[in-house]
Amino acid sequence: MDEPALQPTGPSRETAPLVTLTDVTKRFGAVTALNRVDLDIRAGECLGLVGHNGAGKSTLVSLINGALAASSGRVDFPASSADHALAAGVRSVFQELSLCPNLSLAENLRIAHADLRGWGWRRRAGAEIEASLDTLFPGHGIAADALVETLSIAQRQMVEIAIRFSPLGGAPKLLILDEPTSSLDAGIANQLLEAITRFCDDGGAVVFISHMLGEIFRVASRILVMKDGHIVADEAADHFTRQGLVDVMGHVATAPESDSEASPRQLGDVLVEQAGLQARRGEIVGLSGLAGHGQAEALARLYLDATSAWRETGTPPMVFVAGDRKRDGLLPLGSILHNISLSFLATTARWGLVDRASERRVGDEWQRRIGIRTQTLSNPILSLSGGNQQKVLFARALASAAPIVIMDDPMRGVDVGTKQDVYALVRAEATKGRTFLWYSTETEEVCQCDRVFVYRNGAISAALSGDALTEAKILEASFEMQESEA
Amino acid sequence: MTLFSRYRILLPIASLALLLAVTFYVQPRTMSYFGLNLLFNLAVPIALATIAQMLIIMVNDIDLGIGAFVSLAACVAATFLEQSPLIGAMIMAALILSYALMGAMIHALALPAIVVTLGMSFVWGGLALFLLPSPGGTSPAWLRAIMTVKPPLMPMALVAACLIAGVTHWLIARAGIGTVLRGVGGNADAVRRAGWSLVRLKALAYGLAGLFGVLAGMALVGLTTSADANIALRYTLLSIAGVILGGGEFTGGKVSPAGAVIGALTLALAASFLSFMRLSPDWQIGAQGAILIAVLAARLLFNGRDGARR
C-alpha cells in the first residue's frame, strides 16, 4: 500500500468505494431478477458471489459493468467519479467468452483497447497480451498471433482472462470474473486464483463468481450470497463455513452418496470400443485428465462416427450433451420447447408432421423432472439463465431413446443443487440400461463414475475403476510424465 | 494439405494460376501485354464491386443490391459527372452516405440485410432508369484516360488489381479499424462490450462498401464509355461468388481482401476462357457455375482434413 500522504487525491478518495449500488432493482417483464440491492465494493476487496442459477448473480454483475441498465436505483463509481463502468476501470470476464474467433490474440486485445493506434499497433498489442499471459499463466504456450478459433476452450478462457487483466491503456480497478475456472483444469485454475489474490493485494478489487465453494473460500475476503434476486448474506469470508454457506444459499446439501448405497448395477455387453475407450451397457464411464488433452476430441470422434450416416435410422444411436452450449448445443432463436424436443421430433412425428401434443407432453414432463425454471416452455431459450439452459440440453438428450449419452463437460457453470439433481438422474437412467460417457474437468464428478479413462496428450494413460478410482490416482495419471504445475 | 487451410489465400491463387495456365495453353496470344489487358480489363470494376460485397459480408450481412447500385453509379458517372463534375461528385457522395445510412438502419432496427438491400436494389434501379431511360451518356474524359492508361511492364488491369488488393488489404487486414470491423463479424457482442458503437461500425462498413460501389461504377463507365441502367446487374452474384472464391466465408468475419480481388479476376478469366473454348454462350453461365463449385469443393476438401473439431 502507498502512503496516504503520497496520494494526490487524499484519503477520502482512497476509501471511497469503486462502485456503489443504491436501491437497485432490475425487472425483465414480469420477472424481478434483482430486488432493491445495496452494495459497495472497495479497492483491495475480493468479493465472492454465490447463489443458485437464476439467483440474480449475472444480473447483478451486468448492472455493475453497464451491460444492463437498472429499472430503478443508482449505480455510481465514487472512487473515479466516472460515469460509466469502462471509464471506471471495471472489466468483466464473461461466462460466454467475448473473443472474436476470427481474429488473433493481439487483434482481440486491440478491440478491447480502442486507443491502441498508429504504426506497429499489432506488435505492441502482441507484447501486451503475451506479458499478461506470462504473468497470469506461466508456461501457457499460446502465441500472440494465433487465431482464437484454433485454440481450445480452456486456452480461450485463459486469453479472455489475460486480456481483462492487461493494462489496455489504463489499469483495471475492478475485475468481474463470472465462472472463470469452469473450463480450466486444476493447475491453470490454481494459477488464476493466485493471480487474483496478487491483484487484490496490489489494491485491485475482484468480484468472483463460482460454483466451486473451495475456490470462493480460497480467494474471497468477503462473501455475498444471493437468492431469488436478493442479497441474503454479506459478510467477511471467515464468518462462513462451507456448510453454513450452503445453508444460506438455501439448497439442501446432499453429501455425495457412497457407492455402497447405490445398488450395484448390472453391466451389459460392451457397446462402445474405440481407441481404447470402452463402455458397457448401463455403465457410467468418465473421461478425465487435464483440460484439452484429447478427451473432447475422443468423444467428438466417437459421436460423429456413430451418427454421421446419410440415412436417418429413427432412434439415434447416441445423443450429445454439449458443454460449449453456444457452439454445440443451443438453437439460440428457438423456444425452450423446441430446444428440448429436437432429439425426439422424428420418432414422434406422424406422416412427417410434428405431433404437437406429444411434443408438449414430453416437454412438460422433462421440465418437471429436471426443474427448468420458467413460466412456459414457449419462452425463448435465451431467456433462461446459463444453468437452466444446460438443463434444457440434458432434457433434450435424455428425452430421446438413444442408448448412449455422451456428455462433453456439461456441468460448466452449473450450481451445486442442479448438479446433484443431474447426478441422480444420470444414475437412474444408467440403472435402466443407458450408457453414459462423461468428460468432466471436475475430478469430484468423475469419481462418481463406474470407470474412468484418464487422458494425457491425446491418449489414454490410465483406466481406473472400483477401489483404484480415487482423486489421487486420477491426478497421478494426468500428470505422470510431465512436471506438475499445480 | 494443412498449408492450404493455414493460408487461405493459397487456394484462390492456385485456382487463378491454373485457369490462367490453361487459358495460355488454349490461346497463346493472350500471353502478352495487350492480351492480358483484354483478359482482365473488365475485372477491375468487378474487383471493386467484390470488395464492396466483401465489406458487407465481413459484418455478417449480404448485399443483394450492389449490382443495381453500381449501375446507378455508372449512370451518374456517364451523365452528371461528365456534364457538371461538382454536382456529379455531390451525388456520388450522397450515394455513399445513403449506403452508410442503410447500414445504420439495418443495425438499429435489427432488419435482415438481405431484405433491405434487395428492396433498395429496386430503388437504385429505378433511379438509374430515371437518369438514363435508354443506354447512353458519355464517360468523362479523365475517367476514360485513367482506365485506358498504358503503364510500362504491366497492363493497367493488373496494376489496378494489385493496387485495389494492396489498399484494401492494408485497410481491412492490417489497420486497427479494419480489425475492429472484422471483429464485428466474428463476435459483435464482444465488440459492443468493449465500448464500440455497433451502429457506427456498421455504418462505416456499409459506407465503405458504398464507396467501392461508386468506384466500380466509375471504372465501368471509363471502360465502356457509356452507361445503361442495367449495365452491372449481374455484379450482385458475381461479387458474392468472388468473395467466396477468394477464401471468404459468409459468416464469422472471415474475409480476405486480396483473395476477393483474385476471386474477381478468376471469374472474369473464366468467362474469357469459356469463350476461347468456343462454348456456346447458352452454356457459359452453367460452366462458370461448375468452375465455382469445383473451387469450393477443393476448399472444403482441404479444410475438412483438419477434422471437424478443435
Provide tags for this entry:
heterodimer; A: 486 residues; alpha/beta; globular; B: 310 residues; mainly alpha; ABC transporter involved in vitamin B12 uptake, BtuC; 15 helices; 0% strand
Mean pLDDT of chain A: 81
N-to-C order of helices and strands of chain B: HHHHHHHHHHHHHHH
Structural category of chain B is mainly alpha
The helix tally of chain B amounts to 15
What does this molecule look like?
The complex is a heterodimer of chains A (486) and B (310). With 486 residues, chain A is α/β, with parallel strands linked by helices. Chain A has helices at 10-15, 57-64, 105-112, 121-136, 153-165, 186-201, 213-219, 242-249, 295-307, 325-329, 336-341, 345-348, 356-370, 386-399, 416-431, 443-446, 471-479, and strands at 19-28, 31-41, 46-51, 72-76, 90-93, 174-178, 205-209, 222-227, 230-236, 270-274, 277-280, 284-289, 318-321, 404-408, 435-439, 451-456, 459-465. Chain A is built from 17 helices and 17 strands. The longest helix of chain A has 16 residues, at 121-136. With 310 residues, chain B is mostly helical. Chain B has one domain: Orthogonal Bundle (ABC transporter involved in vitamin B12 uptake, BtuC). Helix content of chain B is 75%, strand content 0%. Chain B contains 15 helices and no strands. Chain B has helices spanning 2-6, 10-26, 33-40, 43-58, 66-78, 80-83, 85-108, 113-131, 141-147, 156-174, 176-193, 198-224, 235-245, 257-276, 281-304. The longest helix of chain B has 27 residues, at 198-224. The radius of gyration of chain B is 19 Å and the shape is globular. Classes of the chains: A alpha/beta (486), B mainly alpha (310).
